[in-house]
Specification:
The chain is an alpha/beta fold. Helices cover about 45% and strands about 10% of the residues.
Length: about 325
């Protein structure tokens, strides 16, 4: 089979003739020395009103190729747009998020589609930032998750949680989880995420005693109206009844080996792995690194938030709750100290 080349007008005329003769796709592919899928895609993509005409197919293909070139150059030729795209790709925003942000929020800058941004990044104009795309920065790994799931007395499982919480229409419902060091490392990351706004809290800790974990969660969520907290069956949450009293809220547990039941925090954990690889020794990172990761996730453009950031939505929800700015500042001061 020869190397792939675009179909030319001569080949398209032969395809048109073969179709009129009733030849099969496989037979056409053999005569033209093409893949069957290439013939099929050509007919499907370049037919007009269900009829394949060689001249119309050639024109349609030429228009697509010209548009593809323009899409690539659109970002490269607009300095303001290029600056916005490059800055945000380097800030680990996704092309989908950048495109949505341009459409929904940053309307003063010329719009570029997701496809146009990908084409720019993959072109010679943007090749130097291609490594910053999530798909190039993160390698998926398989294997059984290591955990310390145990039996905990007095748990209320997630199927008892009010159904309206699942709809994310109410602010103040959180999910929590831990990210562990590798086998030879020390320390853990406690991750809490507000379900409606996807706003994350990330904090490093070495002492995972029940008392310390409860104290830390109380400090992290100080000044925030908390309606519920959903956790897994980690041994560090054994004193969940005390935690419920500290937070003045209900606590629910996922079923054992069912991380999908707290998908919001699992999704944030996946994003954290871009900056903290699996098997890493968490104690080897400076605390400023985890603060940087937290800020990255808080300022990420998100499709589910209409391309706002979790921070923008979280602050908007706090204003709706009429929480004074002094409470927010006090909470941040407690966490810093």
């Amino acid at each position: 089979m020869r190397e792939f080349n675009h179909f030319d007008l001569g080949e398209r005329k032969r395809i048109e003739r073969f179709l009129k003769q009733g030849k099969s796709l496989r037979e056409m592919a053999r005569i033209l020395d093409r893949c069957v899928s290439s013939i099929s895609d050509e007919i499907k993509n370049n037919s007009v009103n269900g009829i394949y005409d060689a001249k119309k197919a050639q024109h349609k293909a030429d228009v697509k190729r010209e548009k593809s070139k323009r899409d690539c150059l659109k970002v490269a030729m607009n300095k303001e747009l290029q600056k916005f795209v490059v800055f945000n790709i380097l800030d680990h925003q996704s092309p989908e998020g950048i495109s949505g942000r341009l459409k929904e929020v940053e309307k003063s800058i010329e719009y570029a589609s997701t496809k146009a941004i990908y084409k720019f990044v993959e072109s010679p104009h943007g090749r130097q930032i291609e490594k910053c795309l999530y798909s190039n920065a993160v390698k998926k790994k398989t294997g059984k998750k290591r955990g310390t799931s145990v039996g905990i007395d007095g748990r209320v499982f997630i199927d008892k949680r009010p159904k309206h919480i699942e709809k994310r229409i109410e602010f103040g419902h959180f999910e929590g989880d831990f990210i562990e060091s590798g086998k030879d490392g020390k320390g853990s990351l406690l991750v809490l995420v507000e379900r409606k706004t996807r706003y994350p809290f990330i904090v490093y800790l070495e002492d995972r005693s029940n008392r310390n974990v409860n104290r830390l969660i109380e400090e992290l969520l100080f000044g925030i109206p908390i309606k519920s907290l959903t956790l897994d069956n980690d041994i560090s949450f054994q004193k969940h009844e005390e935690l419920s009293e500290l937070l003045h809220s209900s606590i629910y547990f996922c079923h054992p080996q069912s991380p999908n039941e707290k998908g919001t925090v699992e999704n944030r954990n996946k994003a954290i792995r871009r900056y903290v690889k699996k098997k890493s020794d968490l104690s080897s990172f400076p605390l400023s690194h985890f603060k940087m990761v937290e800020n990255k996730l808080r300022t990420r453009f998100m499709t589910c938030l209409n391309f706002k950031t979790p921070q923008e939505e979280f602050e908007r929800e706090l204003r709706k709750q009429k929480r004074p700015q002094s409470v927010v500042l006090l909470r941040e001061s407690l966490l810093t100290n």
